[in-house]
Amino acid sequence: MRRPELTPTRSRSRRAHHADATRRRLIGGSRLSDFGRPDGFLDRQLSTWRRQLDASRSRETPDLDRLQTALEADVPETARTGIVHGDFRLDNALVIGEGDQAHVSAILDWEMATLGDPLVDVGMFAMYWEIAGLPGALASAVPSAVDPAAGTPSLDEMIAEYARQAGIPVPELHWYRAFAAYKLAVVLEGIHLRYQQGGTVDDGFDQMGGLVAQKEQWLRPLLNAEIRSAFCMTEPDVASSDATNIDTRIVRDGDHYVINGRKWWSTGAMNPDAAIFIVMGKTDPEADRHRQQSMIVVPRDTSGVEVVRPLTVFGYDDRDHGGHAEIVFRDARVPASNLIAGEGDGFAIAQALVLKTAWLMDTAGNKQAMTEIQSIKIAVPRGVQQIVDRAIQLYGGAGVSGDTPLAEMYAGIRSLRLADGPDEVHLSSLGRAQVLRRAGS
Ligand SMILES: Cc1cc2nc3c(=O)[nH]c(=O)nc-3n(C[C@H](O)[C@H](O)[C@H](O)COP(=O)(O)OP(=O)(O)OC[C@H]3O[C@@H](n4cnc5c(N)ncnc54)[C@H](O)[C@@H]3O)c2cc1C
Questions:
Q1: Looking at residue 231, which CATH number applies to its domain?
Q2: pTM value surpassing 0.85
Q3: 227: which of 57, 199, 255, 275 fits an S-S bond (Cβ 3.0–4.6 Å)?
Q4: CA 419 to ligand 1 centroid distance, Å
């Protein structure tokens, strides 16, 4: 059973699937009175998952322990009881038929089902909208993530539909959503433990285990500002404003990847605290154009990594963040678990934040906002550059000297027109979108 293909053009039938799924499963009211014990269900769930966490411990998890205590201190009153599926998500829905005829014919995987508070399922289902909103790696590692940009209802719409069909006011789900996050974290701790023990058995679990390991090794020190990172995509030898041109190779060799390529404009890499480089390169040059690239974490002290030189911007060292660098990777070898998400996910990761912004703007109800924001990214740097240029003219020689900040401001704003993706590329993509929109209307 695979998750049905999600495309925007199918959004009406997709909404029908959801309404159907919502009606079939999420409403309680079962007559199977001996199927489980609804009394004390939430307390029992908490103890079960606490035991699960205790059995999965491989390290200190103070945040998770705090969440557990907070959940235990604030267990909500169960307003209704019914069947709880226990693992309710899109890829447990069996869909038959095509196009507008497609509908949910069954919900699978009932082995965890019992009687209890049905809002537990709603909270868990909501989790998959949150996962889709995460940048890159984790979202792409979870196939059941629900992406409203692909035509599914928004989370608010799903909850409102649930409430309508259940005949209840829109439920307060804070506790249930926190509980879902807790359960998922406990599951991940279990996968992490097995991964550490070498017990994960397929690529998906390996990838997930690797993600937790990366998070522990790099993300936590990054968040605590103990180390910094630099992003290495742009290359001197290819037109890098189109990331599909990137030429650096990332080649699998047993349990490692070997990286060869030359990068430049890696902002912040001159800072000695930049302990890791996130390198974009090709794992499969024969794959589909947008599936050739991957991203991988390369520690600065890896043998074969050479920070060749610092780059200046109009002669300024632009050193607030440490400075931009040119870096060469010669047979730099890192563990395979350093790959971020999967092979071929590089392009998707690079676009994840942009897509999330676009989705937020769309779900916030202003479809025009995308166009407006792109226009702002084009017009504002140009406008500011013109203002600084006129101020320089006004100041005469002082304007281009180091005695006023104007020359440095000019250098900064002029280079922003390249650093944030060349504004000409934004302009041409905006133009293309406008032409397509007009042609479609
Ligand atoms: C201050 C600064 C900081 C940066 N920080 C980083 C960083 O941290 N990490 C990183 O990887 N990179 C970084 N960059 C690099 C930046 O992302 C690239 O310079 C930019 O994407 C352009 O790529 P390129 O230099 O290869 O130019 P090219 O791709 O060779 O483009 C050259 C020119 O051709 C034009 N052009 C290209 N394609 C089109 C098109 N389709 N339509 C119209 N015109 C087009 C553009 O106007 C562009 O100015 C930084 C750059 C600067 C200046």
A1: 2.40.110.10
A2: no
A3: 275
A4: 6
